[in-house]
Amino acid sequence: MQRRKFLQSSTALISAFPLFHFNQFDIFNNLFLTDDEIVTIKVGTTTCTIFRDLMFKYLAMDFFINANQAELEQSINKYKIKPDNIPSTFIAVLLQQGDKKILIDTGIGFLEEPMIFRGEAYVFKGRVQQLLLQQNIKKEDITDVIITHFHPDHIGGLYNGANGLNYPNAKFHLHENEWAYWHSTLSDGQPALFKHFVETNITILKNLNLHLYKGDFTELLPGITAVTTEGHTRGQIAVIIHSEKEYLLYISDAILHPLHIEQLDWQTNYDWDHQKAKLSRIKLLELAYKENMLVNAFHFNFPGLGKIDKLENKWSWNYNYK
Ligand SMILES: [Zn+2]
Predict the structure, then answer these.
(1) Where are the domains of the chain?
(2) Of the CATH numbers 3.10.20.90, 2.60.120.10, 3.60.15.10, 3.90.1150.10, which one belongs to the domain with range 2-318?
(3) CA dihedral 322, 34, 295, 20 (to 10 degrees)
(4) How far is the CA of 9 from the centre of ligand 1 (A)?
(5) From the CA of 111, how far away is ligand 1's center (Å)?
(6) Per-residue pLDDT tens digits for 41-95
(7) The pTM is what?
C-alpha cells in the first residue's frame, strides 16, 4: 500500500559498526579483489558515484549470532569467507542532478589523533574527503547531505575537528525518529564512542540548515525518497533514487551481508531490534524485487551493487547486475 502510494506520488524514479572485538580488526588491510575506490553509474539522468571510505572486517559470531553452525559453515564456504574475517566496506554516495550535489552518508571521517575505545586506540582515516577532491568536488560544493542513521561509519565525515563542519553550504536531511532517539534517554545504553560521534557530528547541526523530516516514503528532493527501515537503529532510512524509468535503492545497513537475504532469521549483534530489522529487510526486498531496482548496500563487497532474486520464495542476492 505504502509502495503504491509512493509510486503514484513520486515526481521521478551499509551500520554495522563493531560494538565488540574492535581490537581484532585491521582497518587498513586490503581484503578486496578490486583496487577500485570510485565507481560511477547512471540512474536515468542522475550520476551516482560510490566512494570506498574504508575496509573493515567483522566476525561471524557477531554478524550471524543465532545461525545454525552447520548451515553457517556451508554458507560462509560458499561466499569464500572465514568466521574471523568477513570483509566489509564503508561507503558514501554522491548524487549529481542538475545543480544539486547530494551526499548520502559521509563515511567515518578522518582523525589525526587516536580514539580510545575500551582501552584500545584507533585512528580512522576515511577516504571520502580525498576521493571527492579527486573528482573535483570541493566540500563547499555539496548542496545536500542525507544521513541514513547515526552510527559512526555513516556520520563521522560530517565534522572535521578544528576545521569544523565539512559541508558548510549543505542542507542536512535527518529523520526525526533517529534524531529523537539519540537525543533522549532511550539511547543511554549505547556505547560512549557512539554517543560521542553523535554529539560531535550530529548535535552541532541543530542551528544550521537542518531538515528534520517525518513519515515514510518522504520525498526529500525531486526523485529522492526516504523509506523508513527501523530495526538496525530506531530511525534508519533507505533511499530511493528515481530518474526517468530507473531506480537505485540505497539500503544502508538494513542488510549487512548477502547471507541476511538468504537467511532472514539470522540476526546480528549490530541491530537495535531484531524483529523490526527482519520486517524492514522484507520490506526492502519486496520493493526492490517488484520494481527490479538496482540495489546499493553499504557493507557488501565494494561497490555493493546488485539485484534481488527470488526463487520458490527464497530470496537471494545477485552481484551480476549489469
Ligand atoms: Zn554501517
Answers:
(1) 2-318
(2) 3.60.15.10
(3) 160
(4) 30
(5) 18
(6) 999 999 999 999 998 888 898 899 999 999 999 988 888 888 888 889 999 999 9
(7) 0.88
